[in-house]
Amino acid sequence: MARIGVLLLNLGGPERIQDVGPFLYNLFADPEIIRLPLPQLQKPLAWLISSLRTRRSQEAYRSIGGGSPLRRITDQQAKVLQSELRQRRIDATTYVAMRYWHPFTESAVADIKADEMDEVVVLPLYPQFSISTSGSSFRLLERLRQDDPAFARLPLRAVGSWYEQPRYLQAMTELISATLDQANAPDKAHVFFSAHGVPKSYVEEAGDPYQEQIERCARLIMDTMQRDNAYTLAYQSRVGPVEWLQPYTEDALHGLGEAGVKELVVVPISFVGEHIETLEEIDIEYRHVAAEAGIENFLRVPALGTHPTFIHALADLVETSLAEEPVDLATFTQLPQKTKLYPQEKWQWGWNNSSEVWNGRLAMLGFLAILLEVLSGHGPLHALGLL
Ligand SMILES: C=CC1=C(C)c2cc3[nH]c(cc4nc(cc5[nH]c(cc1n2)c(C)c5CCC(=O)O)C(CCC(=O)O)=C4C)c(C)c3C=C
Ligand SMILES: [Fe+2]
Ligand SMILES: [Fe+2]
C-alpha cells in the first residue's frame, strides 16, 4: 500500500509575544501579500511595515492570551484527520506546513522526505482560494520542487479550493444552526458572514477568484441550511491605505444597526480554526462596533476546528484527490491573461500601465531616500535645512 503524506497548508501565527515581529516580517516579505513594482524593495519595506505594526499586533495577541492558538488547533486537526484516514484504510500521515511561522513548509517537506512517503496530497486549510493564501503556499511548494529533484519526483496531488464540498457545507450549517438556536428570536436573527478581506486590486487586476468563491460559499451555506434568515456578507481585517474588498465589516455592522437589526449571528467564513481574527477582531473589536450600532445580541459561530463532520469533509477531499491523476502545481499558480505583471517588462510612451509602474518605482525610491535620511539624520534635505 502506498504511503501517503497529507500536507496541510496554513498561514501560521506567532506563538509568543516576541515572535510577533519576525512573523510579521515573514508575512510582509511575501510578494503575494504585498505586490510591489520593484522586487528589490520587498525586504526593506517588509522590515519597515513589520516594525511599524509590531506593537499594535502584540497588543492584539496579548488580549488573546499572548499568542496565536493556530498551531495547536492545526496540529489537532492534523491528528484527527490522520486517524480518520487510517480508519478508511488509507496509509496516511499528516504534516502541517505553515507559510510564515513554525512549523515552516520547508520543514514539513523535509519530514515527508525523511519519512519516505510515496505520494503527497496537498490540502490547504482555506476553503476558498486566494493568491495571498493557498496561492502563496502553492508557489512556495513549486519553488521547493524546482530546487529539490527528490521532492519533485514524488507524485503530488493538490486541492485548489473546496468551499463547495457537501460535508464542509453541512458542518458549517450545523454550527450556524446551533448558534441561531441560542438567539432570542432564532427565525429573525441576522446571519453575518465576515470574510477575511484582500486588496481590491488582487481581484480586479490579478484575477484572484477569492471574492467570487466567498460570495458563492455564503450562498451555498444558506441554501444548505434551509432557514429563512436574512444574511449579509462583509470583509474584515483590512491592513494599509489601499482599497480592500467591500463592504467593510465595520460599515456593514453600522448599516444593520441603522436598519434596526437587534440580533446578529456572526460567521467567520475564511478560516477553519480560531485565531486572532476571530478571537480578537470579531469577539472584541466588532462586538464593540455592533453594540455602538445598536445591535443588542451579538453571537459568534465557533470556527470548525475538529468538528467531526468537518474532519469527514477533509478526509473525503483527500480520498477524492487520491482517485485523480497527479498534478503540476503550476496549474494552480498561473494567473489569468488580464493580470498586470509586476514589474512591467516593456517601456511604452504615454500614460499607461508602464508609466504607472515607473511612477510607482520612482515614488518608492523617493520614499526610501527620505526614510533613510530621517533615520540617519544626514542627506540633501538636511543640507537645505528642510529636515
Ligand atoms: C497585508 C495583507 C494581508 C492579506 C492580503 C491577508 C490575507 C489573508 N489572511 C488570511 C488569514 C490569516 N491572516 C493572519 C494574520 C495576518 N494577516 C495579515 C495581513 C494580510 N492577510 C497580518 C498583518 C496578520 C497578522 C495579524 C495582524 O497583525 O493583524 C492569520 C494568522 C492569525 C493568527 O492567529 O496568528 C490568518 C490565519 C486569509 C484567509 C487571507 C485572505 C483570504
Ligand atoms: Fe491575514
Ligand atoms: Fe488581521
UniProtKB/TrEMBL annotation:
<dbReference type="GO" id="GO:0005737">
    <property type="term" value="C:cytoplasm"/>
</dbReference>
<feature type="binding site">
    <location>
        <position position="196"/>
    </location>
    <ligand>
        <name>Fe(2+)</name>
    </ligand>
</feature>
<protein>
    <recommendedName>
        <fullName>Ferrochelatase</fullName>
        <ecNumber>4.98.1.1</ecNumber>
    </recommendedName>
</protein>
<keyword id="KW-0456">Lyase</keyword>
<keyword id="KW-0350">Heme biosynthesis</keyword>
<keyword id="KW-0627">Porphyrin biosynthesis</keyword>
<dbReference type="GO" id="GO:0046872">
    <property type="term" value="F:metal ion binding"/>
</dbReference>
<feature type="binding site">
    <location>
        <position position="277"/>
    </location>
    <ligand>
        <name>Fe(2+)</name>
    </ligand>
</feature>
<dbReference type="InterPro" id="IPR019772">
    <property type="entry name" value="Ferrochelatase_AS"/>
</dbReference>
<comment type="function">
    <text>Catalyzes the ferrous insertion into protoporphyrin IX.</text>
</comment>
<keyword id="KW-0408">Iron</keyword>
<dbReference type="GO" id="GO:0004325">
    <property type="term" value="F:ferrochelatase activity"/>
</dbReference>
<dbReference type="InterPro" id="IPR033644">
    <property type="entry name" value="Ferrochelatase_C"/>
</dbReference>
<keyword id="KW-0479">Metal-binding</keyword>
<dbReference type="GO" id="GO:0006783">
    <property type="term" value="P:heme biosynthetic process"/>
</dbReference>
<dbReference type="InterPro" id="IPR033659">
    <property type="entry name" value="Ferrochelatase_N"/>
</dbReference>
<keyword id="KW-0963">Cytoplasm</keyword>
<comment type="pathway">
    <text>Porphyrin-containing compound metabolism; protoheme biosynthesis; protoheme from protoporphyrin-IX: step 1/1.</text>
</comment>
<dbReference type="Pfam" id="PF00762">
    <property type="entry name" value="Ferrochelatase"/>
</dbReference>
<dbReference type="InterPro" id="IPR001015">
    <property type="entry name" value="Ferrochelatase"/>
</dbReference>
<comment type="similarity">
    <text>Belongs to the ferrochelatase family.</text>
</comment>
